[in-house]
Amino acid sequence: MTAGKFSRGNRVSTVLARKLGGELLRLRDEAGLTQPQAAAALSATAAKVAKMERGWVPFRDPDIQILCDLYGVADARVVDRLLSLARTDRERRKAKGWWNQYPELRSLVEYVALEDIATGIRTWQGAFVPGLLQTPDYARALAIGNADWEDPDDIERFVEAKTARQVRLSDSTPLGLWAVMGEGALRQLVGGREVMRAQLAHLVEASALPNVKLQVIPFLAGSHPGMTSAFSIVSFAEPGAMDVVYMDTTSSTLWLESEADAVRHNTTFERIARNGLALHDSVALIERIRKEL
């Protein structure tokens, strides 16, 4: 359980590097080998292997292949997955993304950077509309309600940055989004009736995109596995292969990077979704609530 990105001198520990390092550490433990033995195979120091396993340095493809051979990893799919994760991390480190212009994003910076290179996101939100689906007026009302900013210009910059994220839903390689939200998120009058009417209309429009799945869990569904927390699962390949879980709380931003955490949250997400209405019924409920406003 970790925060998004750490810095130490000129080194940076990233979510993806920590995930890759954790996978290699697990493989080394299963092989019954020590860090010095891994270092000898790489003609490196044990300190370098320690930094690799903690995600402090980017991974070279030859190093991964050497370690996989040493650890007895015979499945080519596992090796390819690790190599792909390393390449994605290197691209992420080199990226000079638009999000770096927005310090107002604060703890969201690392998430938005990963969102930019992700292939898919599964998100569960019980209390509010997910960021990728928010209108500017809705995002502004949320920011004002959170009282995190005193300067109106900071709020406008934050709204501008959140809106810019939504390009991923319609670019040349559109992000796959499966969003599940609670009925309460649709009925909470964030910004007032006019803002909510426009927000609900926007959700209906977004649901028509081929890469967007939108489900609503109605109040009548009763108790379900998502009632205690909200989270997003970020994927960088086929679902489950290279997933990390993001949770934003009132006191901290958490990344769950282990394979076990990814599997557990994917299972939880599917259980939550099973409590939701079918896609067309979800849209019908959104339309009905919009008309009630």
Characterization of this structure:
With 293 residues, the protein is of the alpha/beta class. The chain has two domains: 88 residues, lambda repressor-like DNA-binding domains (434 Repressor (Amino-terminal Domain)), CATH 1.10.260.40; 195 residues, Endonuclease, Chain A (2-Layer Sandwich). Helix content is 50%, strand content 13%. It contains twelve helices and eight strands. The strands form two sheets. Strands 5-4-3-6-7-8 form a six-stranded mixed sheet, sandwiched between helices. Helix 10 runs antiparallel to helix 12. The longest helix is centred in the first third of the chain and has 19 residues. The protein is elongated and about 70 Å long. The relative contact order is 0.13. The N terminus is likely disordered.
